[in-house]
């Protein structure tokens, strides 16, 4: 790391003479990433207000930015994937921090869209009042901005670089427990779910939304009841936690809401109000006394502004964003210090969360099951260009979620209808852990339904290392033809399996007999590969193994025979 300290010039006003600005750069071993943040310290009794802050400003060329760059989800993305720069900050809500602007110094830069200045700034404020007697204390630390330089124009290789950045700087995103989203949180309901999870190899239970869980309760009897359920789960080797709606899309009254300019509640509770002190205290007390291992914070801070000037931890609209954000992140830091697993539907990976949504529209899950399945694969295919597979969750509506009953749910359609096994083979095959939402994972009256889940959790355990390694995108789903992905682990010290190819045929009628070109460059294999037919949906037709020579481009031509509605794994070593 490099720290640059700046003091005011002699001509600065007396109020600014004690200020110290520190700009910090951090460079990491093994990845071309630069992190940057700033600090402002004011040890004097005169309070100084930091009205605005740009943490990074780069003037780049058309070639570096790809001529038609854009900002997506708070990160700069090059147009047509021709650029060589990826920039994002840890704070990606409230208007987003990363922006592209024209470079006024360049009057002849007419190619592309002309946006050549790459900027990382607070979208509002921060309006931090800094000083010994300052409202926000005597020191301010900005959010972090990350700059990744690519070595290629290839979309897959750029995605590999982004994913390596996350694995390196936020390694908790590689944790990937197999979990159930439980809808019956009564004592007997939890016990039954724990027993099923243990029998089939699931590892975690999240008490779902709409299940009756109340993490904000201070009732000793209720907390004791939940703690008893947690204790039973732990005795069976199952981790357990629950869902809570934090701030966004929630109003609480009593002066705790975010207020709009008109002084009326604006659709979110304020995490910088005195209400939030009680909220965080109740949640922490509940977690501590029950022994929860994880938390799903729906609606965490998502950029809401608040004009209530009487709130305890912000003084105006201008400082309401960063104060709420930092208080939310302080809670995540507390949870991480306890070793908790954190679900949050916002990309706060650099501040401790484990998993965000992979990318889907919630109303997808009121479509018929086969349509859900096809869309889910498209969502995962697209999402895993910029996310590690373990970094994003998906969904399985075992029971009703958004409507479409009964066509949209595994129950009452049944666990043996075909869609349930396709879902299991697909998600385990993609390396993605979805929310299996319901009150059970199999029907005890149908032993084959239990065996079905055990089959795929066993496959996941057998190949977990390579399934959780990098993913190479081969063919995107359209529901009619074959689609496929390839997991790769080039390090033989990590895994005997150097690749795992997953092929899908979702066509309801057509058997496909064809040959697939499989690029094995990223497996690290150079001359030959041993390919073994692995787990598949449907009736087991046996396994086979063959040695195949790699072509000059490190690829093989693999013959596949795929009946309708099937998934097939191929293990490459």
Please provide a brief summary of the model.
This protein has 573 residues and is an alpha+beta fold. It has 11 helices and 32 strands.
Percent helix: 10-25%
Structural class, judged by helices and strands? alpha+beta
Number of strands: 32
End-to-end separation: 40 Å
Quaternary state of this entry equals: single chain
User: Which strand-content bin applies to the residues?
Assistant: 25-35%
Supply Rg: 26 Å
Unreliable spans are none
What shape does the CA trace take?
Answer: globular
Counting H and I runs of at least 4 residues, what is the number of helices? 11
Structure description:
Helix content is 24%, strand content 29%. The chain contains eleven helices and 32 strands. The chain starts with a strand and ends with a strand. The model has no long low-confidence stretch (mean pLDDT 93). The protein is an alpha+beta fold and 573 residues long. The longest helix has 18 residues, at 320-337. Helix 3 (187-200) runs parallel beside helix 4 (220-235). Helix 3 (187-200) links the parallel strand 14 (179-182) and strand 15 (204-207). It has a seven-stranded parallel sheet, with helices on one face. Strands 1, 2, 3, 8, 12 and 13 form a six-stranded antiparallel sheet that branches.
């Amino acid at each position: 790391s490099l720290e640059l300290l700046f003091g005011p010039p002699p001509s600065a006003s007396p109020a600014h003479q004690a200020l110290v600005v520190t700009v910090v750069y951090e460079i990491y071993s093994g990845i071309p990433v630069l992190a940057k943040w700033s600090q402002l310290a004011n040890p004097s009794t005169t309070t100084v207000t930091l009205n605005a802050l740009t943490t990074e400003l780069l003037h780049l060329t058309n070639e570096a930015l790809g001529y038609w760059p854009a900002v997506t989800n708070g990160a700069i993305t090059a147009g047509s994937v021709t650029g060589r720069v990826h920039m994002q900050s840890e704070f990606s809500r409230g208007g987003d921090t990363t922006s592209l602007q024209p470079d006024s110094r360049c009057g002849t830069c007419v190619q592309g869209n002309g946006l050549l200045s790459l900027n990382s700034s607070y979208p509002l404020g921060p309006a931090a009042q800094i000083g010994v007697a300052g409202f926000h204390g005597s020191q301010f630390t900005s959010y972090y901005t990350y700059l990744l330089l690519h070595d290629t124009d290839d979309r897959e290789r750029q995605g590999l670089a982004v994913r390596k950045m996350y694995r390196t700087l936020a390694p908790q995103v590689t944790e990937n427990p197999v979990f159930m989203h439980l809808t019956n949180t009564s004592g007997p309901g939890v016990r039954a779910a724990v027993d099923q999870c243990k029998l089939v190899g699931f590892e975690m239970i999240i008490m779902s939304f709409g299940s009756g869980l109340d993490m904000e309760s201070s009732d000793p009897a209720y907390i004791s009841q939940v703690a008893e359920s947690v204790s039973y789960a732990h005795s069976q080797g199952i981790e357990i936690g629950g869902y809570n709606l934090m701030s966004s899309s929630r109003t609480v009254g009593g002066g705790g809401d975010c207020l709009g300019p008109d002084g009326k509640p604006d659709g979110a509770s304020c995490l910088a109000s005195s209400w939030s002190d009680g909220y965080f205290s109740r949640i922490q007390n509940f977690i501590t006394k029950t022994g929860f291992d994880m938390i799903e914070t729906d609606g965490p801070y998502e950029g809401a502004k608040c004009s209530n000037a009487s709130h305890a931890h912000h003084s105006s609209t201008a400082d309401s964003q960063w104060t709420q954000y930092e208080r939310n992140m302080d809670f995540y830091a507390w949870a991480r210090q306890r070793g908790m697993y954190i679900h949050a539907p916002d990309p706060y990976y650099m501040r401790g969360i484990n998993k965000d949504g992979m990318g889907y529209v919630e109303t997808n899950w009121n479509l018929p099951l086969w349509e859900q399945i096809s869309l889910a694969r498209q969502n995962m295919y697209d999402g895993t260009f910029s996310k590690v597979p373990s970094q994003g969750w998906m969904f399985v509506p075992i029971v009703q979620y958004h409507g479409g009953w009964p066509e949209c749910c595994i129950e009452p359609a049944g666990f043996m209808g075909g869609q349930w096994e396709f879902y299991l083979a697909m998600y385990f095959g993609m390396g993605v852990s979805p929310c299996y939402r319901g009150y059970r994972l199999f029907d005890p009256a149908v032993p084959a339904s239990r065996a079905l889940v055990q089959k795929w959790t066993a496959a996941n355990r057998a190949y977990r290392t390579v399934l959780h390694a990098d993913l190479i995108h081969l063919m995107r789903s359209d529901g009619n033809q074959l689609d496929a992905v390839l997991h790769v682990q080039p390090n033989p010290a990590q895994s005997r399996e150097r690749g795992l190819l997953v092929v899908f045929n979702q066509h309801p009628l057509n058997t496909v007999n064809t040959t697939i070109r499989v690029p094995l460059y990223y497996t690290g294999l150079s001359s030959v590969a041993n390919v073994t037919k692995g787990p598949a949906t449907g009736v087991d037709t046996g396994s086979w193994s063959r040695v195949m020579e790699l072509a000059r481009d490190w690829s093989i031509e693999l013959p596949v025979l795929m009946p309708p509605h099937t998934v097939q794994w191929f293990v490459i070593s």
